[in-house]
Each structure stands twice: as structure tokens, then as C-alpha cells.
Amino acid sequence: MNMMTLQQSERPAPSGFRVDVSRGQRIGRVSSEWFARPDDERYLNLSDLYEAVRGRAERAQARTVESRAIRVEANRDDAERLALLVPGRDGPVAPTHWSFGQLCTLIGAPSSYLRQLPAALSAINLQHGLISHRAELVKILEADNGRVELRAVTGPEYGRIWDHELVDAVMKIAGNGTGDTRWKVPGVLDWATMTHNPFVDVTKDTTTLYASDRDVFLFLVDDTNPIEAGKLPDGSPDLYFRGFYCWNSEVGSKTLGIASFYLRAVCMNRNLWGVENFEQITIRHSKFAAQRFAQEAAPALTRFANSSPAPFVAGIKAARERIVARTDEDREAFLRKNGFSKTETSKIIETVLGEDNRKPDSIFDFVQGITAFARVKPHQDARLELEGKARRLMERVV
Asked: 20 to 30 A Cα–Cα from 76, which one of 107, 198, 303, 332?
């Protein structure tokens, strides 16, 4: 079996690499981001993204204040908006949509209800809640963008990881994210020829570098250097690419996280196809979050970027060679023993037979059949349960 990583000098013609996306998992996280982002949240390179999020951090100030010392009033210039007077600042501060929701959560008030009230009445309710707030201290994040805005309201122990810190960690391994290193915005799968073309211009439609006023999300791949891990049933190479995505919110809308994996293709809608070895770490913005990011997340990203694919290839090889069933009775017993129902067992075996024109006999065959069967499940919880069982089978071999 020929297992290798193609060198940069062996770049393919623009037609790309032929792949088999019927195997592995389909992951829609990047696609969800792609669908949801307006043009002003899409960036064409990491340098521009970094400048944007670094700039807003430089204009921001984080302070801890007493919640009962915050004064809420209807905005004198706009009767439909609220203004806040906070200790240490002379002028009013305007809450953003996000920070208003955080204030409501802080005092236990329903934000959807308060948004419907006239500003003066909403201010009275918020003021009462702040005065009665038992925790006493809150951490606020203000930003001066021509007018002073309240970007975030969190507990006093909130451990902020700035968005630009995550982008900077990615830039250390990916440069500009557009091809100056092996890590880049992904190409696109051509469904007609089943080839993944890595050489696609980065535009607002194709980019996978995003930032809003409350978060960042980045997805990059090494799709000019495919990894061959065995053969497909027709004898052609089974090709994979390395990829990762990461996210953060410096205002508390989500955790920091990094997911790494091997995948076979990315389609125009930014779905990930043929995913294997998906691993994820998350860091909550607790008191020591910044230290954990420096000691765990950033080094993990660097290790994955610089790691050899040899362990992954060896794991695939071992799974292909581990024969666990030679008869129909063996196949049914193996799946039933590993937690699959009788109906699921039949469907998994039928799936492998339909896709490979033979029944499963190795761990790899069963894992591919399980993940293919999972893709047709309409409910996410059922898909995740099946994919989890497949992953555990693979991990046992590795």
C-alpha cells in the first residue's frame, strides 16, 4: 500500500484531486457560519481580519464596577433607546443589542419582554434589577467608536481571551491564510467530476474567515498536499486533507474552541465531507482562561499544523487490516455486540454493500458504513450517537 503526502512541487492541474465523499462524516458547522454571515463580517485574508479585531480591542476598556452604581435612563436624544451612566465615566454609555441581553440575564429579567417596553419603562425595570443584584460587582467592556458603547457585561471573574489573540495564533502557522503557507482558505468540490479543486480565488462568497461585533470564526485547510491512506474499491487512492476551524467571543457569546480533523472535500456551501479523526477542545472564559489558551489551545494548534500524518495513516491502515467478520452471522454479532439494534445492523451492512459492492469485514468497513448510515438520519442527536459509536470503534483499533 502506497501511503504518502504529495509535495508542494507536485501540485495538480486546476481540475484538482479526485475524492470519495461517500465515506466519513459530513460536518455542517462551517456551512452554518457561511450561510449566516453578511458581507461585512467576511474577510479575504487573515491580515485584514486581525487588523479589524485588534483595532476594536485597542479602543476598548474593561473595568469592574458595582452593579448598583450603574444608572439606567431613557436616551435624551432617542426616546426608544436606553443610556447607561457608569462609575468613572462622565458621559452616557449606549448598550449594544448583545450587552443589553447580558444585562437582562444578569438580573434575571426576560430580554425579549423588556425590548418591547417603552424605553422609560424598560429603564425602571433594569434599574430595579441592578440595585437588587446580589453579586454586587460586574465586569464591563466599553468601546469608543465615536460614541461610547457597552460591548459586554459579565461576572467579575470572567477571563477574557481577545479575538485578536486567537487570530494571531492562527497567523503564526497560516500567514495570511491565502496560500503563502500550506494553510489556506479551502478550495471547492466539483460534484460533476468528484474532484476537490484547491485553487479557487478567495472572494466574499468563498472565504471562511469571519468576524462580527461579538465573535470570530476561522476555517483553513492544507488542501494542496493530499494524504493517501489506502485504496478505494476501484483501486484509486483514498485522499484526505488536513483542516481545522476555531472560534472565540471576547464578549461572552461563546467559548473559545479549536477543532482539527482530516477531510476529503469542501463544497461550495462549505460543508465538510468525508471527515475522519475529528477532535475538539474548548475553553470557557473562566478566571484562568487566558493562561489555558496560552498553555493548551495555542500550542495544540501549532502541534497539529506541524504534525506528521503518519499516525493517522497508520490508524487507517490498521483499521483496514483488522478483520472482525467473515460471515453474515459474524457481521450481525459484531454490530449487535457494539450497541446497534437489529434494524440498524441490517441497514449498516446494506449501506456498505451498496457503496462498495461487498459486505463489510474490517473495522474500517464497519466504521465507514456506520458514518454513511448516520448521514441519512434526519435528527442531529441520532446522527451524533451513531458517529460517536463509529469513532469509538476506530479509537479501539488505533
From this structure: 107
